Amino acid sequence: MADITETSAPATRATPAAPTRRRINWGVIGDHAILIAGSLFMLVPVCMVFMTASHDPVTIHREGLQWWFGEELEANFSAALFERGGFTDTVDGMRMLTNSLILGVGFAIGKIIISMMAAYAIVYFRLKFATLAFWVIFTTLLLPLEVRILPSYEVIQSMGLTNTYTGLIVPLIASATGTFFFRQFFRSVPEELIEAARIDGAGPLKFFIDILVPLSRTMIAAIFIIMFVFGWNQYLWPTLITTEEGFFTLVRGIRQIVQVIADGNAIPEYGQAMALAIIAMLPPVLIVVFFQNWFVKGLTESDK
Fold first, then answer.
1. Looking at the structure, do residues 269 and 161 belong to the same domain, yes or no?
2. Best exposed site among 28, 67, 143, 263 by fewest CB in 10 Å?
3. What is the pTM of this model?
């Protein structure tokens, strides 16, 4: 018999699927473009100030802000921090930096203490006019410092607190903003926790210190950042309440350099002023960067 050879049909090849075109998400691109534009809007002026701080005052006076680095960066920063200046040649940048830190930390701590105590009294004590007192405190947000600056100055001057840290800090430590945030936080504390504290025999002071304060850590951090930046950037009140250069802050020191009363045709030290401006930006930025997680939790966390 003849061998019958079976011819197998050729295998059919699978045709590859046509690649699907990935659709462009224009919404995401638009969101990122807005974020990048906003970042550049904030960072470009800071970069210009930093680059300008590396030039000599004659170049800055003649050409304005600079777009590239010069050769005076180290000299300007060193002079801004350690060279004594002003009208009496008794104050330097380190002294002004210390004054700004005292003012910022004093503002933050004072406002936190006063706000926590006020919110604690409003929420946990059965005061007849507690709600009215809260809204009276809250309406003070409509009265900025400029509205009450004259009576505040009269009180400080009559008490002899001008040119003192007490006069710089104490008149402005009352905070409606801090009282509002702490009131909202205290109202979110479970009633079961309050009842447990009462059963354990905790009095009002012990309940406040041992329970509420530890629970308020994230809120305290958030309020501290806000109030520190507020105190650090103060210009009007320190300018009004201090006349001695030993109490000048960084914000006022920058203005002092630019507004120097020069003899003849002398040019203000613009490079030192720009260097001092960069130094003045660093502490608030560092505090926000290092405590940003606590800041977000303090303002947005709902499970207390």
1. yes
2. 263
3. 0.77
Same structural domain, 171 and 239: yes
**Closest CA relative to residue 173, chosen from 183, 163, 162, 165:** 165
Give the count of domains, the chain.
2
| Model pLDDT for residues 239-296, shown as the tens digit of each residue | 888 888 878 888 887 777 666 544 445 676 777 788 888 888 888 888 888 877 777 7
Tokens of 31: 């969101």
Looking at residue 218, what is its pLDDT? 85
Long-range contacts of the stretch 107-110 (C-beta < 8 A, 24+): 107/169, 107/172, 107/173, 107/227, 107/228, 107/230, 107/231, 107/234, 108/223, 108/224, 108/225, 108/227, 108/228, 108/231, 109/224, 110/169, 110/170, 110/173
Asked if residue 172 lies in contact with residue 143, where contact means CB atoms within 8 angstroms, the answer is no
User: Do 216 and 116 sit in the same domain of this protein?
Assistant: yes
